[in-house]
Amino acid sequence: MAFQTGFGPLSCLETMIIDIHGHFTTTPAQVAAFRTQQVEQFLRDGTVLSDPPPVSDDEIRAGIEPNQLARMKERGIDLTLFSPKAVGMDHHQGNEATNIVWARYCNDLVHRVCTLFPTHFAGVAQLPQAAGVPPAQAVMAELRRCVLELGFVGVNLNPDPTGGRWQDPPLWDKGWWYPLYEQLVELNVPAMIHVSGSCNPHFHAVATHYINGDTTAFVQLLMSDVFRDFPTLKFILPHGGGAAPYHWGRYRGLAQDMGLPTLEDRLLNNLFFDTCVYHQAGIDLLLSVVPSANVLFASETFGAVNGIDPRTGHHYDHTRRYIDASRAVSEPVRQDIYGQNALGVYPRLRGRCA
User: Fold this and answer.
1) For the segment 113-158, what is each residue's pLDDT rounded down to a tens digit?
2) Is the pTM of this model over 0.90?
3) One of 14, 264, 300, 331 is an active-site residue; which one?
4) Catalytic site residue 300?
């Protein structure tokens, strides 16, 4: 059986390991510098800097080969679903016009990674969201371009483009979000619900805002009819779903008190959790609480936490070690978490298995 990323074949075996959460955090310096210049120009005179600097293939290789690719090979990971740097999506800065240029530039760089390393990476898109602007024509156009032209298999959706101020409508708002959900269903692609940077001093971006975003999305979806209205829509909560698994009993009880269906019936046909949880006890809890069919392997390597745990001598983000060591799941279930579950959630990935 051959796995086709859109650019080249890859072995598609029962034991294939797919990391669904990777970011291009190792771009050359001129990429971030361009965004800084873009925001500065917008703040200065309201105009859009729209000519990003070139990036060579050699610069892309230099960013990927000694970093993400080397770590994947060390850990036996076959394929990473790869998107632009999450904290760098930067939706709370600039306006829609600046963010269209920025998203397209970042997505094109991810596409070039997937072209240069076709057996190791598949693309996930950044959307040109902007604070105070409902996701409409510009967002839909970039979504369709990435999926239909670049062969991307998923998208990152920011539930809070206001950067920690939470001033835009919640995920259940029909006028704001439902047109985007309709496009996701039509294209048959899932969305990872992933916030970006924080401009709220109370919320450190990766330590607090990320976990707040995951938990907030879980509760908004629990207390809404999004999945009743879109029964085939699929969302992934990163970072293990924030606080949701730890407080599963709280949410079961709230749903019961509100006369809602069980969490299983309300959410778990549509909502999935990744394994970006960086200690053994956390992974054990996740695997003990959330049904295994709703858990997808991920590590977010070269992401929020890059150091080595002095208690283990291994990188905190080496999540495969925790899953391998966990007694909460059997070996067949473990293999489903590593690959088969992802093929079910990302249909365009499965569709390229010939």
Assistant:
1) 999 999 999 999 999 999 999 999 999 999 999 999 999 999 999 9
2) yes
3) 300
4) yes
